[in-house]
Amino acid sequence: MQFRLRPFDMEYPTTAREAVEMRDGSHSSCFLTGGTHLVPTWRTAHRPPQLVINLKRICMWDRPETTAGLWLNPVTTVADLRGVLPVSAAFGGLGAALSEFGSPLVQPLATVAGNLAAAQSDSTLAAPLIALDTRIFYDSIVGPGMIRADDLFEKPGLTTLPHGALITGIEVPAPPESARGEHLAIRTGLATSTPVVAASAVVEIDPEGRVTGGRLSIAHATPTPREVWSAREILGSGSRLSEIAGALGDAAVDAVEPDDDRWATARYRQRMARVVTERLVRSISHSEAEMGAGR
Amino acid sequence: MKTNSISLSVNGEDHTLDVQGNETLLDTVRHALFLTGAKMSCEEGRCGSCTLLVDGNAVASCIVLTSDLDGASVTTIEGLQVGGKLHPVQEAFLEATGLQCGYCTPGMVMSCVSILDKDPTASEEQVRTKLSGNICRCTGYVKILDAVRLVQQGHQGHQGQEARS
Question: Could you say which residues from 14 to 53 on chain A have a Cβ atom under 8 Å away from some Cβ of chain B?
């Protein structure tokens, strides 16, 4: 075998509290849900921890529910979420990101919580979840807590969760009925390659077609996915989408701070931040016009 | 290192296995059960050459830990034939010459079986999307899509015969 995983112990706690206590009692441990990110990582760059705490047998977590919004448990997979995602224009961005997640062979395994906890700049689901103002609930040895998705990422590979904290749930609030969402990524190579830049937006549009609020988030061109804060004011200006596309593109360019890497230069990524944002706005504008025509 | 005892049904045969935490499903089928049809390649879930069916879902077995699969039902390429008769998808791959070097073929066949089991009338676009996790470096995709079409035509023909009888 080329890269057989180095040995580790696997424990299966039956409650979240037991999992948190196991983690606290071990110097070299980590939580495992899907493993699609961790297993390849352990094969190559990093040694696995001595103890892997597998969360799949914690039975108090139910399947995702669709109430006012979405409640996801830590072992909700991408395929699970695709199966229950409400057919709603506001969740359109999340739906688009889910469909391009990894490959069909990975989607039944990979979890939403794992994708966020990996805290990589190419975390596919982070941008749409930030745009939807998602909240992450966690438990830790010092007690439970909540953090907004936009505040989750400290730097690549590191979250702002307390040490040893376990994500216990992800709440995606239901956006207003007037909201429209979209997610777009720009790639330079294969459809399966890592995007150069990706953007998500949720935009609230009144019956006259004026934008009354919303969020724009961006990923891949920043060290970690993030909300474009200056876009909030632009999206609350009461203008038409077509009138603010350029301003949103400028805001996206100002928000990114890319480095040169083997896939793209920093300058190219910065230019693409504008391109992807303007395309995103056009796409929402187009779908709103179509829906308006249908009303 | 500790081991976990799990029950696994592989190609309809029940097994009780003591597995270490670091053992992947691909390790188990190839090195413990000697079912070497599934191939090892990228080892990070990107190429699909190790595709197996777990409870009917096609998954990349190189990133699935076996200890997670207690009670699961696994199908490998060796389990597709019944009484020495190849599965219709395997027959169609032969008929359409849907293989060149053959390394990706077991994974391709398993993904096609899963796709057609779930949606026998999937459009070519849907099949292309659902096969996007399986890579053929000989780039023989056209013949593979031909094979899927052959199976679908056979299925429709079979349904037509049933309707007529």
Answer: 32, 35-36, 39-40, 43, 48, 52
- Residues of B engaging A, defined by a Cβ cutoff of 8 Å: 1-2, 4, 20-24, 27, 31, 40, 43-46, 48, 51, 54, 57-60, 62-65, 67-68, 111, 129-134
Q: How far is A192 from chain B (nearest CA, A)?
A: 8
Alpha helices in B21-140 (DSSP H): 25-27, 88-96, 105-118, 124-130
Q: Which residues of B touch A7 (CB under 8 A)?
A: 1, 20-22
Q: What's the pTM?
A: 0.89
Task: Spell B72-86 as b/e; 16+ CB within 10 A means b.
Answer: bbbbbbbbbeeeeee
Identify all chain A residues contacting B1, using CB atoms and an 8 Å cutoff.
7-9
Topology at the third CATH level for domain B3-79:
Ubiquitin-like (UB roll) (3.10.20)
Distance from CA of A59 to the nearest CA of B (A): 14
CATH number for the domain formed by residue range(s) B88-152: 1.10.150.120
φ and ψ of A83, to 5 deg = -75, -25
- Cβ(B112)–Cβ(B53) below 8 Å: no
Q: Residue A3 has what pLDDT?
A: 64
pLDDT tens digits along B42-61 = 988 989 999 999 999 999 99
Q: Which two tokens stand for residue A124?
A: 């596919």
pLDDT digits (tens, 9 = 90+) for B26-46: 999 999 999 999 999 998 898
Assembly ipTM: 0.88
Is the CB of residue A119 less than 8 Å from the CB of residue A152? yes
Residues lower than pLDDT 50 in chain A: 1
State the pLDDT at residue A66: 53
Q: Scanning the structure block, which residue is given the tokens 């936009």?
A: A150
Crossing angle of helices B105-118 and B88-96, in 10° steps, is 120
**Domain spans, chain B:** 3-79, 88-152
Tokens 């829906």 sit on residue: A291
Interface test with B, best of A38, A51, A54, A103 (most B CBs within 10 A): A103
Please answer whether residues A135 and A112 qualify as being in contact, where contact means their C-beta atoms are separated by less than 8 angstroms: no
Q: Which has the closest alpha carbon to A105: B163, B59, B137?
A: B59
